[in-house]
Every structure is written in structure tokens, then in C-alpha cells.
Amino acid sequence: MRRKSIGRAAAALLLVPGGYALAGLAGGAIPANAGARQPVDGIRIYVEDNGIHTGIVVPKHAAGIGFDDLVRPGDIADPRYAGHGWLSVGWGDRSFYIGTPTWGDLKPATVAAAAIGSDATVLHVGHLADPAGQPGVYAITLTPDQYRALAAHIRATFADRPAPVHGYGASDAFYVARGRYSAVTTCNAWTGAALRAAGVEMGAWTPFPITVTAWL
Fold it and tell me: Whole-model pTM?
């Protein structure tokens, strides 16, 4: 009897990841802003996907909106990179984001801790040139009003006093952010929420990179 109970418990535990994956894919398949179309002319932004994290790439100045008050050249290891005209922005759990720049850095303990939930969240911001044509980069065109809505969503995620920490290289940094990270509210869910706020057709819940990029 005890062996049967242990077996059932083990089977239930194995079903959890599968159920989560199916739920995430289902949520990503449900459209929000259904039927929304990109304008022919407008403000170009990008979504970038490194296989773990998705983020949004925005021009530093567009539609009367900038980020100079939040993101400064002195926040990165080499301020010369601040001369680039674009910012890549992603949100996530501090330990997960800072500790997993690639799949090779991923540790089960980090994933488990992040899935349980954390209020220690950051924005990962990089200075870069126009990423058009780069692998894992998807272009989107927004109207000025849509861009302002997107920028407002990004700006609202910064903490009141963002304290920068140098990032993976010379051109990026991490900033203290608002929001609670969990298995439901992942870095990719944040990307999807930002795009939905801008009126882009997107999945209703986007916990995985594919649930974001499949719409682009």
C-alpha cells in the first residue's frame, strides 16, 4: 500500500510540469487584441528571443518619449555604448535573470525558486544598435499612440529609485523593478503584457518564448 501511495505521488509530481506546459501553450494560443493590424508606417520596435528570455527593443527617443531619466550612460560598464540608439528591455526574477544568460547556466534550483515566486525582480536593459536582421529578432510597427502605451508600460515597471547593477557585458545593466515573478508571471509573460498594452495581437498568457514569438 505504501509503495502504491509513493508511486501515485511520484506520478502526480511528473504530471505537474506537463500540465504547466500544456496550460502555457493553451494560454498562448488564445488571442488578445484579436485582428489587430500593424500600420504601414509608424514606429518600429522589436521583440528579441534568446531561447529563455524575451525582451522588447525600443528606440531611445520616439513619439516624444525617452528613457534618459531612468537609463544613464554611467550605469553600464562602458558608457561609450550609450551612443547607440536603441534599448533592449526585459523583466524577470533577479536570481534567474542575472544567473542564467544562456541555457548552459540554467540550474534546477534557480528554476524552482523562481517558480515559487519572488518579489526581487529586475529590468535588464541593454544599449545596442538597430538589431534589424539579427537572429531571434522580430520587427513590429506601432502607431505613435501604441508606442506611447508601450513606453508607459515599460516605464511603470521601473522602481521609483532604480539602482543599476552591471549586466552580462559592457553595454547592459540591471535595474530594480516592480512586480512579482512566478511561474505564472514570467519574463515572457511580461513581454506579452507589454505588447498587449500597446494593442498588438498577442496571446492572452505568454509564459514561454514561443507563446510570444508565434504571434510575430
Answer: 0.88
